[in-house]
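User: Fold this, then the next.

Assistant: Folding the first:
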Amino acid sequence: MKILFIGGTGTISSACAQLALERGFELTLLNRGRQPGWPGARQITADIGDAAATAAALGDKCWDVVVDYIAFTPAEVEQRIALFRGRTAQFIFISSASAYQKPPVHFPITESTPLVNPFWDYSRNKIACEERLLRALQEENFPATIIRPSWTYDEQRITVPVNSKKSFTVLDRLRRGRPVIVPGDGTSLWTMTHNTDFAKGLVGLLGHQGAVGHTFHITSDEVLTWNQIYETVAAAAGVAKPRLVHIASDFITACLPEFAGGLHGDKAHSAVFDNTKIKRFVPAFVATTRFRDGMARSVRWFDADPARQEIDAAANAGWDRLIAAYERGLEMARRELGR
């Protein structure tokens, strides 16, 4: 079976590429070629943002399945429809579970949960992409399948909601005994999924004609509170008693507005998913990586090479200012309202 991945080197797509190759698929990667490809995969080098150059690079080739990991706007989806109309039997679009209704009003979240997110442009764009693909399915039988991952991680990420792209930063804070920020009171429930587990579900849908026209989320069944998640990361780092500072999401985003979309639009709310549908379509799917084991791998990855241990000084300073402001406000409230 001939498979085309648009992308193929990111957190999610890299695990899917590896598993697809292991299972004997004929895999081609379409990307700018800036990251090393996977042994056994073919490469088409083009910037998908350049429609004419991409069309020239693709030539008259056809694929059984095209998986798009890097479309984020309706305009990009429109381009993909034009590029692959009549050239694939299945087009899989990677959307986002953050598109589900925020705040949630029903648990667990299923694929029929309404798509409403007034807080995050990223999520609203994903919703609009899904709507365009479903319209293409209805109007011209464009063979769309939609996948909604939740927070999916690999060994190169320390996954807590208040962190930097240089995610070793929070690990370093924990080890130095510096406080780390937990949104709310830390009791919201969340689902973390290792990329190798996500890949089992995605690869199981490749070429599945019964999946055309359907949407799926693919997540772990392990559910943890934010407190448990931070404590798990700390334990993996060898820290017995982390200093957790619980701060309301409204306070965090008022001081650090860059977190507004991700918190109010996603991580400030519990996220518990019903995976019945993906298990029905891919009976072999089961998420087997516990979060504690995934974080242990991540810590080992960072510790193996000092060059990976980048610290975001600006983020550190911002967090320290936020914590100091919160503690001043808390002390003032105690003085004025305490008994």
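Now the next one, as you asked:
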Amino acid sequence: KRPIVTVRSAGNGSVSIKDTNGTYKAFLPGTETTVIATPYKDCDFIGWFVADEGSPISTDTEYTFKVTEDINLTAKFSKRPVVTIRSTDNGNVVFKDYSGTSVAVLPNTEVTVIATPNENCDFVGWFVANEESPISTDAEYNFKVEQNITLTAKFSKRPTVSIHSAGY
């Protein structure tokens, strides 16, 4: 009996067996083969797992091995966390090292966001979702990205005082 190699994807990527068009193939015992994992955009390859259990047998996207018995390999992928920044009226926001208002980064990447108030306005803080307290009151806020997060920079307009002189 020829051993069969079967590959499948668990997550955000595709898999194949080199020199085949499918995801399973029978091999002569002792034949060397390569399985290939290709992560989708803004995703990362975690590793090849046997029967979806334990630690990966390889973290290489192209894993070459000798086929000695039936084997079911699962390629696991993860989507990169996305940081989105917004602002209320009276100010602007930017990433220190990225363009745009949304960026996908590797987990545990340090990101810096910068809030700039308009003239006669003050920066109040960086807020997450519907939280009433800011996660930072620093206009230039640096943090480690562990999951998707949307930060809103809130600004306040300074009160204006008008003084009028009355003529006598």
